[in-house]
Specification:
The protein is built from 7 helices and 2 strands, in the order αβααβαααα. With 192 residues, the protein is an all-alpha fold. The protein folds into 2 domains: 110 residues, no CATH class; 64 residues. The protein has a two-stranded antiparallel sheet with strand order 1-2. The termini are far apart.
Length: 192
């Protein structure tokens, strides 16, 4: 697949909220939405797609995905949690995200947890994952190309894309299933 590097470049992996992007002051909901739109707007699949809406944030709050806000303002910790939610929602249900983040919220409320250090570790691993992904995607593209040449079909460009899509979705599902198993382990630990 010749356009794979172009596709990777268009994904906007550099568009992630870092600790430096987070203001030192608390933000109102509209400011939170604006921050996320500025950072992730380029990664939207279509112009109509919304990065974050008031409804989404209200649903996250009602679902207790993050601890309660004060005076209608979102702290740096809220922004970090919302950023994690934004990343997790691509693969996990809101219930699974809640289970995943419950422990973090409890630690934040108790005041004995450095969420910024946790998020910095996440950002470091995010960067490493992107590097591994770029190498892996090129390898998968080569594998797909080799398989397509074996078929000797006329519409090989379409078939190559279809096989590549199926391969990528398969890999995505494998990772998602492992994540869901880990969420289930968290649930089991809470029951004990």
């Amino acid at each position: 697949m010749e356009k794979v590097n172009e596709i990777i470049a268009d994904l906007g992996f550099e568009n992630i909220i870092t600790l430096e992007d987070l203001p030192k002051i608390d933000l109102y909901m509209d400011q939170v939405i604006q921050l996320f739109e500025q950072k992730y707007g380029a990664t939207k699949r279509t112009e109509d797609e919304k990065v974050l809406t008031k409804t989404m944030i209200n649903n996250y709050a009602k679902g207790k995905l993050f601890f309660s806000i004060k005076n209608k303002k979102y702290s740096k910790e809220h922004l970090i949690l919302i950023s994690l939610i934004y990343q997790l929602k691509g693969a996990l249900s809101l219930n699974d995200i809640k289970t995943t983040l419950d422990g973090l919220n409890e630690k934040i409320i108790a005041g004995d947890f450095n969420l910024e250090a946790f998020y910095e570790s996440y950002l470091y691993l995010f960067t490493k994952n992107v590097e591994s992904f770029k190498e892996d995607i090129e390898e998968k593209a080569k594998d797909v190309n080799e398989e397509i040449t074996k078929l000797e079909e006329q519409d090989s460009q379409y078939l190559e894309k279809a096989l590549f899509i199926a391969t990528l979705v398969n890999i995505s599902n494998l990772y998602r299933r492992v994540a869901e198993k880990l969420v289930d382990e968290i649930k089991e630990c809470k029951k004990s």
